[in-house]
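protien #1 (seq + structre)
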Amino acid sequence: MNIGYDAKRAFLNNTGLGNYSRWLIKAMATYYPDNIYWLYTPKIKDNRHLGLLKSLLNTKCIEPDTKFLSSWWRTKGIVKNLKSDEIQLYHGLSHELPLGIQQSGVKSVLTVHDLIFLRFPHYYGWINRTIYKVKIKYACKAANRIVAISQKTKNDLIELLGVDAAKIEVVYQNCDRAFSLRQSDNYKTTVQKKYKLPKRFLLTVGTIEERKNLLLLVKSLQYTRGNIPLVVVGKPTPYLDQVKAFIEQHQLGNRVTFLHEVSFDELPAIYQLATIFIYPSRYEGFGIPVLEALHSGTPVIAATGSCLEEAGGPDSVYVDPDNEHDLAKKINRVWNMPALRQNMALKGFEYCHNFDDEKLAGQLMALYQNTLTHA
């Protein structure tokens, strides 16, 4: 088959939607090598992702003929390319499909990651909310099938946009395999010394924004026993000022380390050095950092209320995203019980098999074939 992908995020985004796009393209190209995978992108940036995408021998990278109208090309002009390239199925990997694809004869699949902009509109400006809603409503209507990356996202599509449940299939994602590879003791020691990490610490990873709820975790430190240290890895936003103000007011500065420039190669070592991974986010489409922690053999405490139970499985620990006392209580328990941590790590690593690349690629291929045959 000739299968096309909206590969903008794969080439240009370092996290989130970019990680999903690269993972999916690589998994499909690896486990179903007889197909040709056409990667449509308005721009190709020379970064660490380019080598991965170009190393897949059964892929072709397609750019617009001119850079001046690249956004228009991705919105509509790409349909002409899909027809001339004889694409049989086109997969929009990040909430979007080009205008006119319904009339093109090319079958389409759409991945929806989350509807946070509808569930928590105050996190977004009015203009962005409006644009997102117009795009996703059109894409959901135009798509032959929709992939939701969690059951929670499927439920939101049905509740908030009125999408027919029969049109949606839940297909989870995996994280980069680097997180399941054991880092050497020497390398972990090097990373630990470079960032002056404590011998034991709590870890949280993700953009430091209001939705990720770092303030809850910082508040919980007041009620933990033994001055437990916290390491925060993530890109700062203005929300960080609010977190730092609380830290200063409550004299917690000696217990919190912020790392804003950690390389991807160092991240697995930091996960594996951590004693507990904490993810108190109020809402996620899936919560890939939880899966990264489980692959790393690190026990997880996460927030209830969205899909994190789907990512973390039955042996992780969950807390109310508004209850710092409950979070502190559970941190104390897990921190001080080595046998519990070991059991959580072992069971969590076993749970990761639900997200094996080959299994998920098989689900996607079955969906593709079903779309071509029946949709």
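ok now protien #2
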Amino acid sequence: MAQTPSNMLPLGTLAPDFRLKDTNSNYEYSFEDLKGTKGTLVIFMCNHCPFVLHVINEIVMIANDYRVQGIGVIAISSNDIEKFPQDSPEKMTEFAFQNKIDFPYLFDGTQEVAKVFDAACTPDFYLFDNRNRLFYRGQLDDSRPNNGIPLSGSDLRSAIDAIIYNRTLKDSQKPSIGCNIKWK
């Protein structure tokens, strides 16, 4: 299992816009369509990555906890489906249903969106403020598959709380670690 870190896009970067198909609804959405009133969490993930499988329940809990507080949540899969058919849009729909993902799970078939975000791994988290500026990029928490640290979502939850309650982040931002995006 490869351990690829986030590229750590510079804080303050304006959220790239995109238009991608949601595998849950079959509608196309842009960042503007899905952004939250307080901020927006963009997650690069896929169906088969052991790092994503390790954290998917916490991701769904975070989405459920914070969407009602004005945080938009968007998941994007950019993996090459020729080499990794388990990440196809049809399989994304199944994965979303099995894991109770009721936020948009978008398919980036050209991989252009992942490139614009400078995404490197799954999962890769980008939290934008209400002005669409990058506020946090990094890990969910210190838990990884088989490292024995309990899953808490503490790093990402602290960042979201800081946006909601207009606070600054005190801790340094650690990169996410996961499987590399499967490039064409």
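The chain has one domain: 4-180.
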